[in-house]
UniProtKB/TrEMBL annotation:
<keyword id="KW-1134">Transmembrane beta strand</keyword>
<protein>
    <recommendedName>
        <fullName>Protein CyaE</fullName>
    </recommendedName>
</protein>
<comment type="function">
    <text>CyaE is necessary for transport of calmodulin-sensitive adenylate cyclase-hemolysin (cyclolysin).</text>
</comment>
<keyword id="KW-0472">Membrane</keyword>
<dbReference type="InterPro" id="IPR010130">
    <property type="entry name" value="T1SS_OMP_TolC"/>
</dbReference>
<keyword id="KW-0812">Transmembrane</keyword>
<dbReference type="InterPro" id="IPR051906">
    <property type="entry name" value="TolC-like"/>
</dbReference>
<keyword id="KW-0813">Transport</keyword>
<keyword id="KW-0998">Cell outer membrane</keyword>
<dbReference type="InterPro" id="IPR003423">
    <property type="entry name" value="OMP_efflux"/>
</dbReference>
<keyword id="KW-0354">Hemolysis</keyword>
<feature type="signal peptide">
    <location>
        <begin position="1"/>
        <end position="24"/>
    </location>
</feature>
<keyword id="KW-0204">Cytolysis</keyword>
<comment type="similarity">
    <text>Belongs to the outer membrane factor (OMF) (TC 1.B.17) family.</text>
</comment>
<keyword id="KW-0732">Signal</keyword>
<dbReference type="Pfam" id="PF02321">
    <property type="entry name" value="OEP"/>
</dbReference>
<dbReference type="InterPro" id="IPR028351">
    <property type="entry name" value="CyaE"/>
</dbReference>
Length: 474
């Protein structure tokens, strides 16, 4: 499932990029594609999943036949001598028993093939089951990391856009204030307005300059944060228009209430499922340690051949002694006393399992908090978007009223500047609220464990320069 999801996402990204203009701005899908290949957190999770799978194969291998072969060759040089003490009553005894047999050399070589098949090994069986549970845990953690990457990419991407919008707003405010400052200067020189209007307009301009400096720093920091995900400096990023509507709501938070999302999360959250797998592994560890009290039974068999080539007789002859063996049997190993270490190991595994069980409870409780927080943020940001739409409309009316009042002489230039600053800020706030709403939707689905590439593609379709339809079906 994980591999197929990644393959589908990569295929859709490749398709989208093929039809894009050569100089198109980098969009959200481009950034996600770069992060898929370069994000260290995701790559670490993939490596851990691979390692867990390898550990499972190791544990399973302990229950399969163990076959080994051995061979040896040696040359033995032997110097024999015979001695006999005299006075044994036999004439010529010294010449009969004494003397030297001389040096002799023999070649020895052997071959063997040994087979061991576990018949009963409780510890090995439970270790295999524990490794299987930890393999599932690693795969689920990888799924969680892939969903979290979507959120982290969107957060970093929108942070850059928000910082860019703030810088654009600050510079737009500077231009507006400069224009009004010129009017204030001309009105003061003509004796129509007091110098205080010019001075306060200058103060507003200085504040806008400070805001622009801060925004430049924030933009640089946001771009650096994006580099940590993608491994490369981002190009010009696709953004949104200030009046851009939220992504398609079909089948999303609007069709589910809070309890529905919580039920989905309890069934689909990879974090909860990974914690369940960890608890299962911990219980298998207890059973494995209890295996220290039980016997191990193995089926053992071997075949072998040995040859020894030795001198024979006094005429330079050789004798080749050949032994061939075949054996099969059952081997029983029963632990009797281990100094209490087995009982202590069982106790330790029990405490570890209790810790994992409590972690599972904590994860489930945090899931409830995350769902509540994400669901509330989706609703809040949606209301904030509606409110900002009305604020922009009323802000535009207020600016027009201030400009008309200034021309009639019943409003000051400062009123016009304040109205312009407020309108520019409301437009920037509206974009920020759009980013917040999109992120809230992603976080809600991530908390529920159902976040996928399609949701990111729906958001990407709203960006300038992005394909009109980026949704993957299937």
């Amino acid at each position: 499932m994980i591999k197929s999801t990644r393959a589908a996402a990569a295929a859709v990204i490749a398709t989208l990029l093929t039809g894009m203009p050569a100089l198109a701005a980098q969009n959200l899908l481009d950034t996600y594609d770069q992060a898929l290949r370069n994000d260290t957190e995701l790559l670490t999770a993939r490596a851990e999943s691979g390692a867990a799978s390898a550990r499972y194969r190791q544990a399973r291998g302990q229950l399969l036949p163990q076959l080994s072969a051995s061979a040896s060759y040696s040359r033995v040089t032997q110097d024999q001598s015979f001695e006999s003490s005299g006075g044994d009553g036999l004439g010529g005894g010294a010449s009969f028993f004494g003397g030297s047999g001389g040096e002799s050399t023999s070649d020895q070589q052997s071959y063997s093939l040994d087979l061991t098949q576990p018949l009963f090994n409780w510890t090995a069986w439970q270790n295999k089951d524990a490794a299987d549970a930890r393999r599932d845990q690693a795969a689920l953690s990888l799924s969680a990391a892939e969903q979290q990457l979507i959120v982290r990419v969107a957060e970093a991407y929108f942070d850059v856009l928000a910082a860019r919008d703030a810088l654009t707003a600050a510079r737009e405010q500077q231009r507006s204030i400069n224009s009004q400052l010129d009017r204030a200067q001309a009105a003061f020189e003509a004796g129509l307005d007091p110098i205080t209007d010019q001075q306060e307009a200058q103060s507003s301009l200085d504040s806008a300059i400070v805001d622009a400096i801060d925004a430049e720093n924030q933009l640089a920091a946001a771009r650096d944060a994006l580099i940590t995900l993608t491994g490369r400096s981002p190009d010009e990023l696709s953004g949104i228009d200030v009046e851009e509507d939220v992504p398609d709501k079909a089948g999303d938070a609007d069709s589910r209430d809070r309890e529905d999302w919580l039920a989905v999360a309890l069934n689909s959250s990879p974090q909860v499922a990974a914690s369940r797998a960890a608890w299962r592994a911990a219980r298998e560890d207890i059973a494995a340690q209890r295996g220290g009290h039980l016997p191990n039974v193995n089926l053992v068999g071997s075949v072998g051949r040995s040859e020894q080539l030795s001198p024979f007789g006094g005429g330079g002859g050789q004798l080749n002694i050949i032994n061939e063996t075949q054996s099969i049997g059952v081997q029983l190993e029963m632990p009797l006393f281990a100094g209490g270490s087995t009982r202590a190991a069982v106790s330790e595994a029990g405490y570890n399992a209790e810790q994992v069980r409590l972690d599972l409870i904590s994860v489930r409780r945090q899931l409830l908090v995350d769902i509540n927080d994400a669901y509330r943020n989706v609703e809040t940001t949606a209301r904030r978007l509606d409110a900002l739409d009305r604020a922009i409309t009323s802000g535009q009316t207020a600016l027009e009223a201030a400009q008309a009042g200034y021309r009639l002489g019943n409003r000051t230039i400062l009123d016009v500047i304040d109205a312009q600053i407020t309108l520019v800020q409301r437009r920037a706030d509206r974009k920020q609220a759009w980013y917040d709403h999109a992120l809230s939707r992603l976080r809600l689905r991530r908390a529920a464990g159902v976040l996928d590439f399609n949701e990111l593609a729906r958001i990407n379709a709203r960006l300038r320069g992005a394909p009109v339809s980026a949704e993957h079906s299937g």
